[in-house]
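Format notes (please read before filing issues)

Several people have asked whether sequences and structure tokens are stored in separate files. They are not. Every record keeps both together, in the order shown below: the sequence lines, then the token lines. Line labels are part of the format and must not be stripped during preprocessing.
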Amino acid sequence: MYEVVTQITIQDSERKMLSEAGYGDPAIEYYLEKKHMGSIEGASQISFKVGSCGDTMKIYLKVDNNNVVLDAKYEIAGCAGAISAAMATVDLVKGKTVEQALKVNDGDVFRVLESIPEKKHHCIQLAVKTMHLGLEEFKMAQAS
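Then the structure lines:
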């Protein structure tokens, strides 16, 4: 008599729960990997925004002399929707000029994520608004 033991990792459990909640595979991967979380030493701009739900985001931008976004990272106190939206937003703006990055919108991020629960769509708005705030504050600092 042998007992079969199935080991389920925390990541597998999170993946299953997020999928059942309505998150698409790309959104789940962004959440689990968190590849653009953290800070950037010597950032060109650091900006901070609090969403209507209380989620908070800090964006770090590294912009070169040609106004190209070389890197961006977020620090986030928030849910899976906020984290996945922010990570997707970084992928959409890296390598673009500040002006091109300012054209990234909620729909662009939603298409990358494929699906997140409807009640989490405000998370996409927060991620995009935080990025835009950082880019606009960077432009204002450069103009002064």
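For reference, the curators noted about this record: The chain has a mean pLDDT of 94. The radius of gyration is 17 Å.
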